[in-house]
Design a protein that fits this description.
alpha+beta; Flavocytochrome C3, Chain A, domain 1; Methane Monooxygenase Hydroxylase, Chain G, domain 1; eight-stranded mixed sheet; four-stranded antiparallel sheet
Length: about 600
């Protein structure tokens, strides 16, 4: 994207910078980039758009999504189509998904994959030059397009390249701390934050704000993100502004995160892509047993992620795990050249750590990887707050109770286009004209004064230490296996942690402690939503496994909604899930299913 940013007011008596624009996109990963591209392609002036990120441009979590991106191209399996993709997505989501959103993604992805190809996406290719596709867990056919095992990185490079061609502005190292709405909480007025390099406060006067800020799995002790990513900013910002959240209790634990002293703390929990299993990798316990034969003899290692993760957890709990609490993932039966070609990043990473994947297994264990829940939005990505949109992992609805591997990147691309189209129509029709922002600067000054006070706090507790405590709390009380007693204890522990968070020792606005203090404020709300939602949902479904309620309850085929009551306390409600369309229901009735043994 272009490094030029829109014109802004010079700092004046307000002691903060003001930026006026039409659309502020918060989050510089694939979802944010694709939204900005769609806006400009549909006629919005690039100078009226700004994409901002908390980190350096191009350093988004998208780059860590390695395995692939789904779309029913039928490269190898011509019987595949979008309805089967939708059926697989609904089954994997245990029918808690929003069928309309699932259909939006699955119908749009075949042409979206070809569009990315036109923009220069570095796909792996078949012998005749087509876009290659591989198996991913719980998918009926080979529909996961890929670029080796660096698909997310290649996708983001492609989108950034296209955005630069369109002169889309961006700004790095900006942390959004508050969304500002009118006094009724019905219309968004703008967003407030600070420059993490200079500490200067920034106010964005925006007709529309798009939250594309990722998810919340970094709130867990073992997670596949970097520590300063996926800390719940997006859902918390929207919730605090008056929007509702949905299904936040559903947290996907990817079966294969790195574990073991051999790899070091910096790599603990980092993802070993599902592509390793998609290319034939096998799981063994410490006794040398290929244990998935006990749990899923038909789909084996490529069963749903929740199934494989719980199987690994059980092997470890019953004493058949490694000394580091994991199992072994082995692809050494494949040729070295095959591994290097299909899994180049994984091969290089482990080689750098002294492990030859062509000769020996790697050690893995489940790691918090993806939040299926998020902000409740309509079919275009708009929240309850007029002018506030959410897309990507920040929004809820596509994935239900468990995400189908390869659908995260697909969602960012599909809904980036959908939301960009809707916002462009809104702006070009003048629907956002005439918004009274007279209250905006009053709210901003109050908020910035609060931030100044926080930056000068000389209290008792270190924000980073409390954040680490929160991670341990969620891992213990709302992890792979849950029960009512543990969730109740978790809520009590969270209340104590929230009390300690009111007495912080914080450095200036450019300090690491100030950023962690902001992260902690967001994390406390999202953690409470996870715990309360998991306690309320008295069944086991997908990634939510209750040992005291082990069965799936048909009465609980309902979305769980989180909002704030009149005094600001968290409140829960439920709503029924819609039925799929006739075309998707026909695909469900046909009973397509992955035959793992084609890989043998």
């Amino acid at each position: 994207m272009s490094s030029d940013i829109p014109d802004r007011d010079e700092p004046c008596e307000r002691a903060y910078e003001t930026v006026e624009l039409g659309v502020l996109v918060v989050g510089a990963g694939a979802a944010g980039a694709r939204t900005a591209i769609e806006l400009v392609e549909r006629g919005v002036d690039p100078e009226d758009v700004l994409v901002i990120g908390k980190r350096s441009h191009g350093d988004a979590h998208t780059t860590w999504a390695r395995g692939g991106i789904n779309g029913a191209l039928g490269t190898h399996d011509p019987e595949d189509d979008w309805t089967v993709h939708a059926a697989d997505t609904l089954r994997e989501g245990h029918f808690l998904n929003d069928p309309e959103k699932v259909q939006t993604v699955t119908r749009r992805m075949p042409p979206a994959l070809r569009e990315l190809d036109d923009w220069g996406m570095a796909y792996s290719r078949t012998a005749d030059g087509g876009i290659d596709q591989r198996y991913f867990g719980a998918q009926s056919f080979r529909r996961t397009a890929f670029a080796g095992d660096h698909t997310g990185e290649s996708l983001l490079e492609t989108l950034i390249g296209r955005a630069r061609e369109l002169s889309v502005p961006y700004r790095e190292n900006v942390f959004v701390t508050r969304l500002l709405a009118d006094d009724a909480g019905e219309r968004l007025l703008g967003a407030a934050g600070f420059d993490t390099d200079t500490g200067e406060f920034v106010l964005f006067e925006a007709d529309v704000v798009v939250l594309a800020a990722g998810g919340y799995t970094s709130l867990y002790e073992r997670h596949s993100s970097r520590d300063d990513e996926n800390t719940g900013d997006g859902p918390a910002l929207a919730y605090q502004a008056g929007a509702r959240l949905m299904d936040v209790e559903f947290v996907q634990f990817h079966p294969t995160g790195m574990v073991g002293d051999r790899y070091g703390e910096d790599w603990d929990g980092r993802l070993v892509t599902e592509a390793v299993r998609g290319e034939g990798g096998r799981l063994f316990n410490a006794e040398g047993e290929r244990f998935m034969e006990r749990y899923s003899p038909d789909q084996m290692e490529l069963d749903a992620r929740d199934v494989v993760a719980r199987a690994i957890d059980r092997e470890v709990r019953e004493g058949r795990g490694t000394e580091h609490g994991g199992v072994y993932l082995d692809i050494s039966h494949r040729d070295r050249d095959f591994i290097r070609e299909r899994l180049p990043r994984m091969y290089e990473r482990f080689a750098d750590l002294g492990v030859d994947m062509a000769e020996e297994p790697v050690e893995v264990a489940p790691t918090a990887h993806y939040g299926m829940g998020g902000i409740l939005v309509d079919g275009t990505g708009e929240t309850d707050v007029d002018g506030l949109y959410a897309i990507g992992e920040t929004m809820a609805g596509v994935h239900g109770a468990n995400r189908l591997g390869g659908n995260s990147l697909a969602e960012t691309v599909a809904f980036g286009a959908v939301t960009g189209e809707a916002i462009a129509d809104r702006l070009l029709s003048g629907a956002s004209d005439g918004v009274d922002r007279s209250r905006l600067h009053d709210l901003a000054r109050i908020h910035f004064e609060d931030l100044r006070g926080l930056a000068d706090t000389d209290g008792t507790h270190d924000p980073e230490a409390l954040f680490d405590g929160l991670r341990g709390l969620l891992w213990e009380h709302a992890g792979i296996l849950r029960d009512g007693e543990g969730l109740s204890a978790g809520l009590d522990a969270l209340a104590d942690l929230r009390m300690r968070a009111s007495d912080l020792e914080v450095g200036g606005p450019t300090s690491r402690s100030f950023e962690f203090a902001m992260n902690l404020g967001f994390a406390l709300d999202v953690a409470e939503a996870i715990l309360r939602g998991a306690a309320a949902r008295t069944e086991s479904r997908g990634a939510h496994a209750r040992t005291d309620h082990p069965e799936t309850d048909p009465e609980w085929r309902r979305n769980l909604i989180v909002d704030r009551d009149s005094v600001g306390a968290m409140r829960l409600a439920t709503r029924p899930v819609d039925d799929p369309s006739e075309a998707v229901q026909a695909a469900l009735d046909a009973g397509y299913e992955l035959d793992y043994h084609q890989l043998e």
